[in-house]
Amino acid sequence: MPLSARRWRQFAESRYAHEREALEFLRDGLPDREPIYLYSNFEFIADDGSVNEIDALVVTQAGVFLVELKSRGGIVTGNRHLWDWDKDGHTITVDSPLTLTNSKARKLAGLLGKQKVFRGERAVKGGVKLDHWGGEKIDQFHGCLGLCFEGFAGAAGA
Q1: What's the pTM?
Q2: Are 83 and 77 in contact (CB under 8 A)?
Q3: How many domains in the chain?
Q4: What domain range includes position 73?
Q5: Could you tell me the CATH number of the domain that includes residue 115?
Q6: For residue 135, with 0-12 CB atoms within 10 Å meaning exposed, 13-18 middle and 19 or more buried, which class applies?
């Protein structure tokens, strides 16, 4: 059973179709039970004054997971620092989104850690979820992407 509306707080609807589809994928894959919650499309202001945009935040008994949604299509390779996206013979190199995601996760963990309900909890973990785009499967290279949805499903007990 997909995550019920009371367990998914969508602060704004994404203007991007791939993000809406990825959020529906998360909603459909997460069990509809305590303590599972999905929060999407929100911003927070960190202690350093930076404004941080969040695509999805998944709360499970295994921890809190900040998820960055990406959809570019083609094949992705690289490492923790740089990703190469190859599509139709064109390769572009970009900074790994996992670096920024982990930074946001640390900032959010710092804020949440100040709240009584979160004291003693594990840190927020960052991850990137890659989607299909244009009908092509994105190759998820191992050891470089952080968490993927399958890790959340296992953590959630699905």
Answers
A1: 0.77
A2: yes
A3: 1
A4: 5-156
A5: 3.40.1350
A6: exposed
Query: At which residue do the structure tokens 């404004």 appear?
Result: 51
Strand, coil or helix: 145: coil
**Size of the chain in residues:** 158
* 14-40 residue pLDDT tens: 998 888 988 888 888 888 999 899 999
**Structure-token pair, residue 68:** 């960055």
Separation CA 91–CA 75 (nearest Å): 9
Is residue 144 within 8 Å of residue 80, measured between CB atoms? yes
Residue with tokens 């997971």: 65
CB distance 109 to 103 below 8 Å? no
Half-sphere exposure of 84 (CA within 13 A, CB side): 8
pLDDT digits (tens, 9 = 90+) for 116-146: 777 665 667 777 666 543 333 343 433 333 4
Sequence letter at residue 93: T
